[in-house]
Write a structure and sequence with these properties.
Elements: E1 2-7, H1 13-18, H2 23-28, E2 32-37, H3 42-49, E3 57-61, H4 67-76, E4 80-84, H5 101-113, E5 116-119, H6 122-128, E6 135-137, E7 159-164, H7 170-186, E8 190-196, E9 207-211, H8 217-222, E10 226-229, H9 235-238, H10 243-250, E11 255-257, H11 262-266, E12 273-275, H12 279-290, H13 293-310, H14 313-329
Parallel strand pairs: 1-2, 1-3, 3-4, 4-5, 5-6, 7-8, 7-10, 8-9, 10-11, 11-12
């Protein structure tokens, strides 16, 4: 089976976690996989599109094409699979009106025109079903062989509350800063570590600023004692696939999160982490974990087990392969 994967860039986390990390497994299973980055210039894109009929399947990650471009890709491809892990049919968090006619139209045209859709969570599947019955949920996953459990923290380093993410999601953390500052007032040993390419400031809370890098990503995760994933409750956030939480759990770090979308599915409140909606809940849950080292360790191990059961390449690689085989055989 020959498969062409059309993805944005290896710098984009969704591309790495939903496509590129599966390629070694797929190749071991006999799949001839080629990767094309659609950020290239238009002329070279269309030159590549002319070759799509050489492949059994063309696998599109997240890209919503213009009508002309999608028509041409559809015409040349034998089979098309569309994979997405964001609520592309809505505007992003903070928009006055989350609904967008143009986004909805581009999304519906794409999923109607492909042979199969791979959605990152159940919310995204529910948004797909009105237009396309052939849809499977494959959650964003990690290669667990890269994620060793964190070691014991040094007492002189304090308790690290960690957040890792892109600059576009830093707004969620900024809304949480007042609660984090109150936690630091109650528990002076608390530090906030931000791993990103932009940072927040605070005069009441010590902030450790660490630029993200692929080489040190796992080490940074292992330096956290508690991982946090705040979100707003809106359609865009409900489409998020909880990669931060999966990564925190991968190294055995407990989580406090907003109970929005997939966060609710992964985090069992009081088992592998805590839910928190209001500022007071964030403050109370964080203080409880800061003051209970044994609880942090037990919840972190429960989180690791959660990932082992359903959010690894080892679990979901075969699911991707089965979808490809099903599409080719259809």
């Amino acid at each position: 089976m020959r498969v062409a994967f059309l993805v944005h860039s290896p710098e984009v986390s969704g591309c790495r976690y939903r496509v590129l990390q599966y390629l070694p497994y797929l190749k071991d299973q006999g799949v001839e996989a080629s990767v094309y980055f659609y950020g290239s210039a238009g002329l070279s894109r269309f030159r590549f599109y002319r070759t799509l009929d050489r492949y059994d399947v063309v696998y599109l990650h997240r890209k919503l094409f213009s009508p002309l471009e999608f028509w041409y890709v559809r015409k040349k491809a034998r089979k098309l699979v569309f994979d997405f892990d964001d609520a592309l049919m809505y505007r992003s968090s903070g928009s006055k009106n989350p609904h967008s006619v143009s986004r909805r139209l581009k999304f519906s045209r794409t999923v109607k025109g492909v042979d199969w859709v791979v959605a990152g969570n159940e919310f995204l599947k529910s948004e797909t079903l009105p237009y396309q019955p052939n849809v499977s949920v494959v959650p964003t996953s990690i290669d667990l062989s890269r994620y060793g459990l964190k070691g014991a923290s040094r007492e002189d380093e304090g308790v690290i509350v960690g957040w890792m993410g892109s600059a576009s999601t830093l707004k969620y953390l900024s809304h949480l800063m007042p609660a984090l500052e109150r936690v630091a007032q109650r528990c002076p040993q608390v530090r906030l570590k931000i791993v990103c390419d932009r940072f927040l400031e605070s005069s009441l809370l010590r902030v450790i600023k660490k630029p993200w890098s692929s080489e040190e990503e796992i080490t940074d995760l292992q330096s956290f004692d508690i991982g946090i994933m705040p979100l707003s409750d809106d359609p865009w956030s409900r489409g998020k696939c909880a990669l931060k939480i999966i990564q925190y759990f991968g190294v055995g770090v407990p989580v406090v999160c907003s109970p929005v979308g997939m966060n609710r599915d992964i985090v069992e409140d009081g088992v592998n982490g805590f839910w928190a909606s209001k500022e007071g809940e964030w403050e109370d849950r964080l203080v409880r974990l800061v003051e209970a080292k044994d609880l942090r360790r037990e919840m972190g191990l429960q989180g690791r087990r959660t990932v082992e059961r359903g959010f690894t390449v080892e679990v979901n690689g075969p699911r991707i392969l089965n979808i490809l085989r099903q599409v080719v055989g259809a």
